[in-house]
Every structure is written in C-alpha cells, then in structure tokens.
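Blackboard transcription, Thursday session:
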Amino acid sequence: MGKYVLKRLGQSLIVVFIVTVIVFGLMHMLPGDPVQIYLGDTATEEQVEYYTKMFGLDQPLYVQYLRWIGGLFKGEMGRSITYSLDVKELLLRRVGCTLSVTFPAFVLALIIGVCLGVVTATHRGKPLDSLLTSIANIGIATPTFWIGMILVYFFGLKLKWLPVQGYVPFAESPSGFLKCLVMPVFVLTLGHLSSNTRQTRSSMLEVVSQDFIRTARAKGLNENTVIYKHALRNALIPIVTMMGGAVGGLIGGTVAIEKLFNISGVGSLMLTAIINKDYMVVQNVTFVIAVVVVLCNLLIDILYGYIDPRIRVE
Amino acid sequence: MEHLIEVRNLHTEFKQSKGILKAVNGVSYYLDPGEIVAFVGESGSGKSVTQYSGVQLIASPPGKITEGEILFEGKNLLSYGQNSEELRKVRGGKIGIVFQEPMSTLNPVMTIGNQLTESVMLHLKMDKKQAMERAVELLKKVRIPDPESRLKAYPHQFSGGMRQRIVIAMALSCNPKLLIADEATTALDVTTQAQILDLMQDIVKESNTAMVMVTHNLSIVARYAQRVYVMYAGEIVEHGTTEEIFKNPRHPYTMGLMNAVPGLNDPKERKLIPIHGFVTNLVDRKDECTFRNRCPYATAECAERATPGLVKVPGEDGHFAACHRTITRDTKVEKHFDTMERSYTARDYSKLTDADKILDVQDLKVYFPVYKGLIRKKVADVKAVDGVSFEVYKGETFGLVGESGCGKSTVARTVLRLNDATGGRIIFNGDDITGLDDAKMRPYRRNMSMIFQDPYGSLDPRQRAGDIVMEPMKNFDIGLSQEQMDKRVDELFELVGLDPAYRERVPHEFSGGQRQRLVIARAISTNPSFIVCDEAISALDVSIQAQVINLLEELQQKLGLTYLFIAHDLSVVRHISDRVAVMYLGQMVEFADWNSLYSNPLHPYTKSLLEAVPVPDPVLEKTRERQIVQGEVPSPMQRPPGCAFSTRCPHATEKCRTEMPVLREGADGHKVACHMI
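(Written on the board underneath:)
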C-alpha cells in the first residue's frame, strides 16, 4: 500500500509539472503586457521599463519559469501586479473565502443527495419517487444563479432575514459569517444535490437487482440491513467517481455564485487575473488547483479499494 | 399426516405491458422432512418462481401471489407480509436457499465471514464470537480448507465451486428444515458438480433436512431425487417417485424431455428427439392444454379443455399425470414433427491421407505473459495451451472436452487465429497459417467460422436478422449481387429452420433457440468448410439443445461441414463426435475415437470425468459405483511440475509428481498421457 501511494505520488508530481509548463506557456503566449495593462495608456516608457524590471519580466522565459518554480519550492509565490500584493497571502485569503462556501455545500450535497437517492430507489415507481425525481430534474435544468437571484430577492430584499450579499470573516463575527453563507451554500448545494440524487438512484437500482441482494433477502435480513449494509456500499463506486470530478470545483469553479453574492473568492480572483494578465496569480492558482485535484484523485483511488476489495491494490 | 411444507393451488402472476403473465398456475405439492424432491422443467416453466413464491422472494411489483396457501409447519406463510418479522424468521432461519450463479450470489464487498455470521446472529441469537465459531464449523462442513483464515477473505478470492460451497454453508447456517437448491450446480464443471451434489446430499441426510432440487437436468434427478415434479408452463404436469417417472413416464412432456437428452450409454444411432416448437405465450392463457402445440399425441379433445388436473395413474401409488389422454411410451404418435432415424457410419481413419486433413495442429503453444511491477516486467507465462497436437479430417466432428480453464477455448480461438500462437504450427487445408498477418489471413477466414456459446451476446442487438446473416457475405465479397445475396439469406433462413419472414426482426424478438439458429446461419453464409462450435449448445434448454444438435448434424451431411466441437457436456460430445480429445490444464491427456474413449477410458482424469456424469436412469444410478475426484483444477500459474493431474489423481506416484508424461499412442490410435498405462 505504502509503495503504491509513493508510486502514485511520483506520477502526480509529473502531472503537476506538466500543468505548470502548460499554464506558464499559455499565459505568456497570450497577447498583451501585464505592466502596460496595470499602468494604463498614460504610462511613460521609463515607468514601464522600471516595473518590467521590478517584476523580472525582462528576463528570458526559461529564467522566469525557473524562478517561479524555484519560489514554489521555498513556499514563495511572487507578487501580483494588479493587486500589488504577495500572491501567497492573497491566495490564502481567497481560498478561505471560497472553501467556506464550497466545502459545506459539497458535504451537504453529498449526504442529502445520497439519502434522497436511496429513498427514491427504494420507492421506485411510487409517488414519492416521482416527486423527488421530478424535483431533481428541475434542479438540474435550472441555472443556480437564477435561483440565487430569487432567494436574494425574497430573503434579502423583501423579508430582510439575510444579508443581500458580502462576506464577513469568521474571526470578525461568527454569526455574521454564518448569515452571509446561508444563501450561497444553499444555492450551491442545490446544484450538486440533483445530480447526486440521480446518480445514487440509478446506481442503487442497478445494485438492488443483483443476485446477492436476493441472497441477503433470502437470509431473512430486514430491509434496512439489505439496503444500507448490502446494497449501498456496492452502489457507492460511481458516486465516489463523481465526487472525484467535483473536487476541482471546490476551489475554482464558483465564479457565478461569487459574483452574485459579491464574495471575493478564488473564482473572481482568477477571472480578474486572466483579464489583467497577472501572470503570477494565474500560474499559482492553477498550480494549487492542480495539486488539490491530483491529491483528491489519489485519495479516491485509495477509497475505491476500501469500498470494493476487488480493486484493492496489492 | 402433516407435511413439512404443503403448497395448495398456488397462483403467481407478473404484470407485463402486454397483459398478465400467469407464471405459476395452480400448483400444489408437498415435502416431508428428510426428502429430496426435484422440480424439473425448462426455463419459463415456473419451477423457480414456484419456489420463490413460497418465501415471497419474487419482486413485487410486478410479481404478485394471487391465490393459494403455503403451509409450512402448519402455518400459512402467505398470511405474513413480504417483509414481516414472522416471514423473515422463516426465510433464512427455517428455509435456506442455494442459488444458481455462485459468481454473483455473494456480496462482493463483504468478507465471507461477515456474510456467514450475519444470519447466524440474526436467527440463532448468537454473539459475534459464537457466530464466528459457527462460521468456521460450517466452512469445515462444506470442506473449505483452512476455514479460520478464510473467514476474512472476500468472495472474489474463491473459485466458483468454492463460492457455491460458501453459499451452501450460508443456506445451512441456521439449521433449516427445508433447503431449496435452485439450479445450484448448473454453472459448475462436472467434477465440481458431482462434489457439490454429493456434499449436499450427505448434509441433508445427516440432518434430516428436506431438499427441493430445482433443475433442468434429468440425470441429476435420476441420481439424487426420491420424488419428481415435472413442470411445464407454470403447471405441474407429472408427479411421482423417481423410479416410476423414469420407468413409466405418463405425460408427453416428460417423455419429450427424456428423448431430448443424450445419455452416456445410448447407442450411437439414436437420434435425439427434440420437443418441437416453443412454449406457448403464458400471457392470457387459453382454454386448452398448454402443451398441445408441441405435443405429438395431441388430439381434438386437447384443444377443447384447459390443462387437466393431476390424475392418479392406475396401478401405481403416488404417480400422477395431467393429460387428457392416457399416454404411455407405446402409444401411437398422432403426428410426427421430424424424422426419427439417424445414420452413423464409422470411418476408417487408417486409410486417410494428409490430403484429407482440413486442420493439422502441431505442438501448439499459447502463453499469456504476466507482467508485474513499475516497469511492467514480464515475470512469468500462463501456459494456457502447452504442446497440443491433433488433426481434423474433412467432414468429421472432432470433440474437445475438459473443464473450465483447461484451454479448450484457447485452442479454438488460436486455430482460427483470433489469438496468436506462441509456438507450434497450424496447418489449414495444407497451408501453414500460423504466422500470417491479417491481410494474408483474410482469404482463409472465409473458409472457417465460429458458433459461439451465448446466443444473446454474440448477436448485435441493433442489427436486423437478415443483415446479420448477410454481413459475412458482404464482408468477404463472395461474388454475389445484392439480389443473389438476398435470395441466399432466404435460403439460409430456411436451411436453419427459420421463417424468412423474420428477416426484418432484431435479435431480442427471437427466442434463445432461434437466435442460435441465426448464429448458425451467419456461420455458414460464406460456405465455409470448417466451423468451430465453442459450447454452442450449452446455454440452451434441453429440448432446444436437441433441435440445434440435430440441425448441426443435418447441415454437416448436406454441406459436408467439418466441426471442431468444444463442450463440457460429455454426453453431448459423445453423441455428436467422431473422435474426442480430452484436455487438462493446457495439455491433451487422452485422445481416441468416441467409442474407445467412452467405453475404455484410460487416463484417470477421463475416468473421473465420466464417473462424475450422472446418467438419466435411477436404477442404474443406484448400482453405479463412483469415485468422485476431489479438489479443483489448479491455477495454470501453479502447474504441478510432473503430470498436471498428479495433485488430484488417486493413482499418482512419485514419478507422476516429478516427470511429465508424454502422449503415447496405443492400439487403434488411442493416445494417452499417463505413466501408469
């Protein structure tokens, strides 16, 4: 097992390296000069030259690349041109913001989605199944930002129960922090929930038609044991696979929600950085996302083996 | 007297889009403690549904038990709800079930220890530790070696036979009063089948448990059962003691079943008599005997009234048949569906020359490499086929038998160049085709084809029947115009006994037997001379099996085909083959013409295979002495150093364990690879 993890970590390192090369290359291939964008049209040539030198952008590309990578090894991420801030600090703050929305939503969607999936599968063809499945379909078909807007309108503007938008750090005011997060977390949960429910339902339906479920029933086990002990674990594999695909979104993929609720998270940071050609920000955010995705996939592969002994690594 | 279980007038229905399917239609039966009773019938006869209805294990909806009583130890099980506490106590606690497919009846993600203890803790109210002890004891009882450590193993770490032993241990774990074995050994090899059935018989006798054997295999019935219920179309058509049923069958269907299976002691001239046609649609039953359309004895009165109830056969105690007429084996047949004769002439192989060979396989080796580690280094070879030589003459049927994993299918695939050979030569019609690339191989492919085991998996579900048959002709461009090909498709349909009007249908609109006919039509469409039949009939019901065997023989005579016939069913191979080779662990251990091989088997493995096969004759079975070979085929990764069979052979000596025997030729070309002969 330890050997397997080491081997996989080695492979992950190669993947991350390739990602850094690609993102670096792409960013520098795009037209436009970040210093020029930052300083605007009125900047003098001296100013541009000065800042270009200060950010090390006058160096050959391979030197710039090696500097970035070398910095990463020392735990440094360079400076953002647009924000004039240390990228590491900037990123840490933004990641905290984003995760406080995405992580609860991810966990809630997983738990509730699996439960609803099991319920719909065990009530197949009955009114409860039809009701929940229809809701899940509506959930998939409806854009989350639209639901978000409706929520903001009712709970923020009309009823004034919750703040319309914004983000309050936990350290400042725990209750404010929670209040701010209710709506964005809810909206995001809803988005994931529907697909989780449907995936669990179809996966469960497939499993309960298998022979070993009949065996379990033939043993005289009660229906709950049959469903939760025998069927669910077998049905988990495709759900876990889907979770693996969704972790990338934990850090990067919630621009719409961030914009709607005016939360300065990683998504909006990335968007601004790409527009402004803020090299260091784009490169480092991509790097962090790559590392997280790669590690999560490794975790999921190990989890597979735990769930299903047939794919357990030797 | 009160029976252990008594079922009265059971009706089970399934709601379908086309109407209501009455799968079980008024079935009544009983079992006494310690009895072994068989339920015989083909797929769709309702034999399994009947048993599952008793413990309410049918999926509901769409299934529903609409009528009847199931008295088990005096209580009506149907008065309990499907998942009620009372019924669950009976299910697993008092009635144990062994299912058909051991590969899928165990939960793959739970250790077998957990799966065994679960019901023990539930029904026998044991704690975890006691339950574990009980599990060990059960595994010992079903003869799983090293039971303590195997408790932590998962199902995929066991072979099929071992898994079935575990399923049996599970079914017996709470000392049930009744054991239901639903086709429990159908998926297993003959030697494993015999081991498992003997084991079940021993355990059941020892504990005075009653056992229901649901099976389609009459030979098993003859060997193990005391009483038999024959089922057809959801009804019991005949019931009696095993001796009476085999000696004096009174229902045309029972007789049909008996005539359709080949036996190990049949004369070679005997033609299998299939049961003509198909089971009537059970949706919306009509008021006529359900067997009427397939019955050779049917008269006008059979169409007027529904299937009669069971009537006692005069002069025989406890023998009942459900037939409007009084039929015995001597009754005159009302209509013939088929010819009854079959000619068999043994050919003289000594006069044949090389020119008569269609296939000459010399020292064929097929190894599959095993890779391991980071850089995928080759660490070993799995020797799937290791030095096999044989020749097939034009127009003969060459049988290849052996248990699963013996390499018989690999030989077939390699001969057709679907696999690459690692060593040796394959000579087809005088040309060495061993190393030909795909392009050079193409002209030969037209002349060879294959009939596969599973008629459900080997047809493209979206292709129309006509196109399926036409495809090889187009593929090999055999020089026919579109019209000519269309005409040939019609001819081929007629040749294999399909209505050309079905050309536009897709595979799922055909029954299993019809699909196999379609597969055969496709195989012969380019007029090949050589056909490999890889378990071509083993997925079919017995009556359909007979139809397909007869069709293959008929085509052989009409078209001069040569068959390489691969099967695990020794009786069928005996019936169809001219010469037979026996394989074990990738090697040929014995080879002879059918008669010498079956009447005078020399290799201990061949002997044990033949002994393991039950014959459809209860009287003979009683007197027959058998020695069931123990153990299982070793993995080809761990092949014994000497004779491959030495680990299981009752006569093995030190020499056998260290030195590999060679295939030597004895009298009449009978070859055997054994040190002891």
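Lecturer's comment: Chain A touches chain B at residues 7, 125, 210-212, 214-223, 225, 229-230, 233-234, 307-310 (CB under 8 Å).
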